[in-house]
Amino acid sequence: MPPDAAATGDFGPIFWEHRGDPVAAIQRLIKEQTGEVPKAFYHKDVGFIDLVWGEPDVIVDGKIVKQGYGLAHIIQKHVEFQKDLTMDDVLNLQNLIQDSIIISQSDNRMVLANESYRAVVRLSWDSKKKTWLMTSYDERKSGSPINTTVNDEPPTGGSGFRPPLTTKNNVDSPANNFNDFFTDSSRQTNDAQTLADQQAHLQRSQQEINSFREQQLKQLYRSFEQQRTEITPAPHAPIVLSSPKKTGC
């Protein structure tokens, strides 16, 4: 049996139906602009990583005055503001994460990295265990070192964010996880199934990304052809030269 589809946690609605499907998880949170998807990503040394919508940065006069977190922060700061990521990169987060290694770790966070990208994973929320993606960015293009700090206390609100509810879901505690649905033994079975689902979805996710890129290229090509047609001059009618009339001397 699946977890309660109507469950709500600290970050808003919990969209269990997209666990193990990174692209669908990202698209759903962008649509809803609230909530979270548990076990959206997977890394062999970290395990499952939740994706939360979170909060966007607060930007005043072109400067970030308050750092956000989660997918909202990644899109606003790194796609729209600093432009060190593209939406293709965001949809491809699973591949960026799984191709990275752990380069640093503390009690409440770890940093994953490959030759270009960084991902900061938090290991707690509100003093409880929770593994979730706080941010990701391209270090080659990022304008300054990322601020990886975030208050452990739940935020009280923000643009595109619903205030946390009193009930808290701890993904590592059988007593709270999935609304007391899973026992210790059933959690192990479910994790194995989720990993299998994750692996099955990776190929589909990559196919969706490739399809998206192909559609964009076709759209650009059609636009180019239309513009070229509009600026191509119409052919002129041929000019016929008449023979000069003979006149008498």
Sheet with most strands? 4 strands, antiparallel
Please write the string of helix (H) and strand (E) elements.
Answer: EEHEEEEHHHEEEEH
Whole-angstrom Rg = 26 Å
Structural class: alpha+beta
Low-confidence stretches: 146-189
Q: What is the terminal separation in angstroms? A: 112 Å
What does this structure look like?
The protein has 249 residues and is an alpha+beta fold. It has one domain. It is built from 5 helices and 10 strands, in the order E-E-H-E-E-E-E-H-H-H-E-E-E-E-H. It has a 4-stranded antiparallel sheet. Strands 1-2 form a two-stranded antiparallel sheet. The chain has a two-stranded antiparallel sheet with strand order 3-4. The longest helix is centred in the C-terminal third of the chain and has 48 residues.
Draw up the topology in text:
Layout: E1 8-9, E2 12-13, H1 22-32, E3 36-43, E4 47-52, E5 58-60, E6 63-66, H2 70-81, H3 87-91, H4 93-98, E7 101-105, E8 109-113, E9 117-125, E10 128-138, H5 184-231
Antiparallel strand pairs: 1-2, 3-4, 5-6, 7-8, 8-9, 9-10
List keywords for this structure.
alpha+beta; single chain; 249 residues; two-stranded antiparallel ribbon; four-stranded antiparallel β-sheet
